[in-house]
Design a protein that fits this description.
single chain, 211 residues, alpha/beta, binds zinc ion, 22% helix, two-stranded antiparallel ribbon, Rossmann fold
Length: 211
Amino acid sequence: MRSADDVLLLIDLQYDFMPGGALAVAQGDEVVPVANRLARGFTHVVLTQDWHPAQHVSFAANHAGRAPFEMTTLPYGEQVLWPTHCVQDTHGAALHGDLDVPHARALIRKGHHANVDSYSAFLEADRTTPTGLAGYLRETGAKRVYCCGLATDYCVAWSALDARAAGFETVLIDDASRAIDLNGSLAAAWAQLEAAGVKRAQSADVLAGRV
Ligand SMILES: [Zn+2]
């Protein structure tokens, strides 16, 4: 069992990102049992939940004449327009029922500001509004952050990059994550992760304490 210095950050394991969901990630459900196994080895587990108001700016349906997966420009930069997903208090926004992490210590909800998206568990997409997670981790003595979940190339990658930028050693657990891979986004994310010093690991190595 790892000390509380090591935090497992389980990202967006919600029905809308699972097969059959509104913004399904292929094989997204396969990471749930891996996340459960990993969580049993960590005393300190934090969950995130994408949690949007219905009028959220990232939804294509809220932009006349626009379709999901098109790009648009918002005051804070380029934004993918997504299918409507993870609307607050809907089934799609709920954490997967097979997720078995009763000892999780915190749950960060992100994307709750109507005009700002938030892929990262640390900083919203305007790159200035903090979620409070970095402060929480510092106050609880965390040193290392192990990130996994959905999707590798968006919320997991952005969270891992921001964990690293906040000064934590950061590991992305590859086989406990699945990607959307939109227009080369997965390769681009890995290039950024490697350049930032985020380690890439497999769950077996994390469970065995090798990473
Ligand atoms: Zn979202």
